[in-house]
Design a protein that fits this description.
mainly alpha; 1 helix; 91% helix; 0% strand
Length: 75
């Protein structure tokens, strides 16, 4: 196996670095897209949880106030 000139080895390394840089850039774009999808999904989930919480809170308040109201108004 003959030793390759330094220029050839350097060119191969530079090509490898460029390919690695391109792949990392593509991965960065993919991660940003995934983050956007996750943010969108979690915002919908938060909205649903908030809505369910308000319903539960309303039911609890009514469940407490109605008996108090009936007890105070009963002769």
């Amino acid at each position: 196996m003959a030793a390759e000139p330094t220029d050839v080895r350097m060119a191969r390394l530079e090509g490898g670095y460029q390919q690695t840089d391109r792949r990392l850039s593509e991965m960065q774009v993919d991660i940003r897209e995934l983050r956007g999808h996750l943010d969108h999904g979690f915002s919908g989930l938060r909205r649903e949880v908030r809505q369910q919480f308000y319903w539960l809170l309303g039911i609890l308040v009514v469940g407490i106030l109605v008996p108090l109201h009936l007890r105070l108004l009963s002769p």
